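Recap quiz, item 2
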Amino acid sequence: MLPTPRAERFPVNTPAASQIFTTVLSQGPLTRLEVARRAGLSAAAVTKAVRPLIEAGYLVEDADAQAPPALGRPANLVRVDGGRALFVGIKVTGDEIIGVLTDLCCRISVARHTSLTSRDLTAVLAAVADVVQELRIEADGFGAPVLGVGIAVSGDVDRGEGTVRYSPFLEWHDVPLAELAAVTTGLPVTVDNDVRALTVAEQWFGAGAGLSDFAVVTVGAGIGCGLVVHGRVVAGAHGVAGEIGHVTVDPSGPRCHCGNRGCVEAIAADAAILRRIRDATGVEVADTAEAVRLAHSGVAAAREAYARAGEAIGRGIATVANLLGPERVIISGEGLAAYDLFAEQIRDAFTAAAFGSAARCDVQTRPLTFEEWARGAAATAIQSFIRADT
Amino acid sequence: MLPTPRAERFPVNTPAASQIFTTVLSQGPLTRLEVARRAGLSAAAVTKAVRPLIEAGYLVEDADAQAPPALGRPANLVRVDGGRALFVGIKVTGDEIIGVLTDLCCRISVARHTSLTSRDLTAVLAAVADVVQELRIEADGFGAPVLGVGIAVSGDVDRGEGTVRYSPFLEWHDVPLAELAAVTTGLPVTVDNDVRALTVAEQWFGAGAGLSDFAVVTVGAGIGCGLVVHGRVVAGAHGVAGEIGHVTVDPSGPRCHCGNRGCVEAIAADAAILRRIRDATGVEVADTAEAVRLAHSGVAAAREAYARAGEAIGRGIATVANLLGPERVIISGEGLAAYDLFAEQIRDAFTAAAFGSAARCDVQTRPLTFEEWARGAAATAIQSFIRADT
């Protein structure tokens, strides 16, 4: 038997060094001095961490063309060489596997979709291994090694232990997915909740870059929320966090799958909207696309269902803002396709329920495709690779 | 004019050093090795930080009587010398100033209460200066210097700027209280929201010591909440955070002073309970003590008002748990006097509304006197003194 090739490791492993690299990765190119300022570290610490990273090819240095020559020797800009390493991100849904190949800067170069014929663990593991294998073959053309795989699953996921504790869509309980997928793919695997993975991608490579406190709210089949507080994604002491979907909006409202009534998710998730239109009109609505068509064609019950969903989402966001006071809330998810139908209600309900200066929070939308959920998974793999502590 | 005496400064000013001191302060006595482990720093960093702190008298070293001699040279225990420095904590309410003198370990040695005859800034500043002066005279007897004052005020307070942005009880807007009180007392002043100050005291010296994620929920005239996430008190990007009082429990419930309906505070604050009893019975209830008496004597409307308050508080706590997944929630405040009247409802509503493993959060109660609110203010002064970054 051939020995398993030892995976390439990140050349620095102190918390300060990974913080410095993360700062350049998410906010660069930057001068060394600016890196030190933003990371809250000394210039000496930056110089010490940057050297081995340049030697190993993870960072490169460019002369700053824009630096005013009057300031003497131009300060060089440090940036990440995205092409130095590749990562695979996988999003597992109830009926599909979406895989992307990204560079170290989390830019997608290739994407693959595979239908799932079964939600059995064995079938899902085999499909994941197939997608990873296909993407590794593609990776050969880029001349850089694939250094890790991230897998994003909705539900209760313990990233530290690499375990899917409970996934309602897959009907899985306590599956040690990271370990199993590492065996089938031969690569280090990070497993995380899909909304938290998306939040990591926003934090490092998206609308949350440089912010220490923000939230991502996803709208669609479920209503999810990823929270970044004091610069780190909130995971919850017991694995549950960001459950904006189960903020109560109306205690006499529709029954939620969690057992309570009137949760945001029981009013604003896709299925809840379809149900409300059906209950009001007696017409069975096939899917969200049809519900949106009905609303756009002026069917009052459909418009009302979306308006009510928007109000619930806006109240949920206000609750997050009142408790945490984030700088920004990014609304995303496939439900954004209907955004024109509830944007105003989200805004109005948020403004009405936000307490005092919490209303100053910047609420913005950011459409994301399913592939970007997979990109979120790749972001967690990048994070695991460069973080000394994970 | 005599030069202003320069205040004594903490002898170390790096983030690592204040973290090391904080670890010993909140969790000591500890061996150097254990300090390093808990602070996530190297033993060398601990040794380097501890030396000047011992020289300056802030830390002392004792032989560990319990260390097993079989392990060779006994490891010395490092602890804070509480008597090395004194601090004043002030809680300002609408009609009273409560001041305490504490040592460096935030133990109260003297307390003073002064009635406020006016809520005018000038009158409050004069009363604060008087209480501080009285406590400094007491401090002379302890042979240690008073190194800082903390002032806790309910409402929207910007600690970084030292400003009371809005205090409903005092009817203040944008008052630069830290600067003004520093002039009248001649000491460095830290101003913070009262619930956040209490949370700092719990984090360093109370039921939150050693926890990285917990919440303090205060019940009484208002319903407040202090949140610690990733080891730090959440302040909110715009000054608002922890507003559990404005989580909506019932959108068709009683009108809240914030303009919405059915907020936790509109149902569970003292005044809301009195109002509900009055509306149901037609009897004017003078104060909370009377409301509690009525409930204890079996008046159904009074019992129901408390039960409803408990349900609202339990739902609010579940919302915090669902979003942040804290390890522990500490319920406190003067409203705890009525705890037997709503403990069961808090517990039941929390359990029903907590999502999945969020229900594993440890919800406990901790009675606190008004003086302990002032102690919270002293804790913020201690924090400002030893923190390089604040």
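Chain A has a mean pLDDT of 91.
Chain A touches chain B through 50 residues (CB under 8 Å).
End of item.
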